[in-house]
Specification:
This protein has 353 residues and is of the alpha/beta class. The protein has 3 domains: 5-87 and 330-352, Nucleic acid-binding proteins (OB fold (Dihydrolipoamide Acetyltransferase, E2P), Beta Barrel); 108-248, Rossmann fold (3-Layer(aba) Sandwich); 261-326, Ribonucleotide Reductase Protein R1, domain 1. It contains 11 helices and 13 strands. The strands form 3 sheets. It has a 6-stranded mixed β-sheet, with helices on both faces. The protein is globular, with a radius of gyration of 22 Å. Zinc ion binds at residues 275, 278, 283, 285, 288, 291-293. Guanosine-5'-triphosphate binds next to α5.
């Protein structure tokens, strides 16, 4: 079983490997350790002192879903030397520290935004998740769970569709199995998905349904006031019988975005299209004459709450941009390159001795 390696095959990993080293996938991250899947099974691992020394930025430490270069002594912890370049990264701003990136999952092919046919349903929240997904270069897949409890399911589905252009929306019941095949479709062999959404929407229940056994604990108590404990407490990756992979996550109470302002034109694509007809190129769609967005609001084509959601996120992302360290934002690739080069130099230097 390859744990998703198939997606990486085109990459020449040998240039990352020294004798005695191999590739592993991170399936969970704890305070100081990672759970790793290696070709011969699972093992705990830890980054080397050198990694700790060279990599200052916590966003570049191993995250669930990462592929890493490891060395396995006969006994004990595997040593993690390097994190391979990520194909995709789902991030948010660290809770309470808006200027630091927290990686929720790496190398994910599909992000499921989970909500339920109950009081959790909130289109503004779906929009926020859609920003996160588009920032990672993917369309979100919205899962409306607990369809067995739904009344007026069509209304909800249409509301969800309206706020995730380009993304799919599926009605599912993790309890009865209804609609689960649609989720399975995204998780064929080698594909990695992640379940994100509030506590209690049924992420772990859906995972158990896909696994065909109750591996993850589930709980009827919803955690919404921040006092209780989420049922799921660690982000962890599981292998499905069909060969796909799912990362189950603890419910997120709030999603502090870590994204570029420009992503909004993708998530609010209908506003972007309207904006092209505004009289002024730099129209802020507030009080300018000849504003097509305002025009669409007046004629009812564009719903007011969608417009307000857009303005709110625009303000939030503009604030983030002002606060962020610019080197941390746009040039992730360069950051990695620098680290990989310094690792390389170190190894070569050592060999010369
Ligand atoms: N009626 C109904 N209940 C469901 C369904 N899916 C999950 N539940 C119930 O919802 C509750 C919460 O489910 P969990 O799977 O623990 O939710 P979670 O999203 O993993 O929550 P956290 O781990 O706290 O983030 C449990 O009591 C489940 O039995 C469903 O499709 N229908
Ligand atoms: Mg859970
Ligand atoms: Zn305008």
């Amino acid at each position: 079983m390859n744990w998703g390696w198939v997606q990486y095959r085109k990459m020449d990993v040998n240039r990352f490997l020294s004798p005695g080293q191999s590739i592993a996938r991170v399936t969970a991250v704890f305070r100081d350790h990672c759970l790793l899947f290696l070709s011969d099974g699972e093992r705990m691992g830890q980054v080397t002192g050198r990694f700790r020394h060279l990599v200052q930025d916590s966003a570049l430490f191993p995250a669930v879903g990462d592929w890493v270069v490891v060395e396995c002594p006969d006994e004990g912890l595997a040593l993690i030397h390097e994190v391979l370049p990520r194909r995709s990264v789902l991030s948010r701003a660290q809770a309470g520290r808006a200027t630091e990136e927290q990686v929720l999952a790496a190398n994910v092919d599909v992000m499921f935004v989970m909500t339920a046919f109950d009081e959790d349903f909130n289109v503004r929240r779906i929009e926020r998740y859609a920003v996160m997904a588009r920032q990672a270069g993917m369309d979100p897949v919205v899962v409306l769970n607990k369809s067995d409890l739904a009344c007026e399911a069509d209304v909800r589905v249409n509301e969800a569709r309206a706020v995730s252009p380009g993304g799919a929306v599926h009605c599912v019941s993790a309890k009865t199995g209804e609609g689960i095949d649609a989720v399975k479709f995204y998780l064929q062999e080698g594909k990695t998905g992640v379940f994100l959404g509030s506590s209690g929407v049924g992420k772990s229940t859906l995972l158990n349904a896909l696994l065909g056994s109750d591996v993850q604990e589930t709980n009827p108590i919803r955690v919404s006031d921040g006092k209780g404990r989420h049922t799921t407490t660690t982000r962890q990756m599981f292998l499905l019988p069909e060969g796909g992979l799912v990362i189950d996550t603890p419910g997120l109470r709030e999603i502090q975005l870590w994204a570029d302002e420009t992503i909004l034109s993708e998530v609010f694509s209908e506003i972007d299209v309207l904006a092209r007809s505004c009289r002024y190129k730099d129209c802020q769609h507030k009080a300018e004459p000849g504003c097509a967005v305002k025009g669409a609001l007046d004629s009812g084509v564009l719903p007011m709450d969608r417009y307000n959601g857009y303005l709110k996120l625009q303000k939030e992302l503009a604030y983030l941009k002002r606060k962020q360290d610019p080197t941390q934002r746009s040039n992730t690739k360069r950051r990695w390159k620098k680290i990989h080069n310094s690792m390389r130099d170190y190894v070569q230097g050592k060999r010369k001795i």
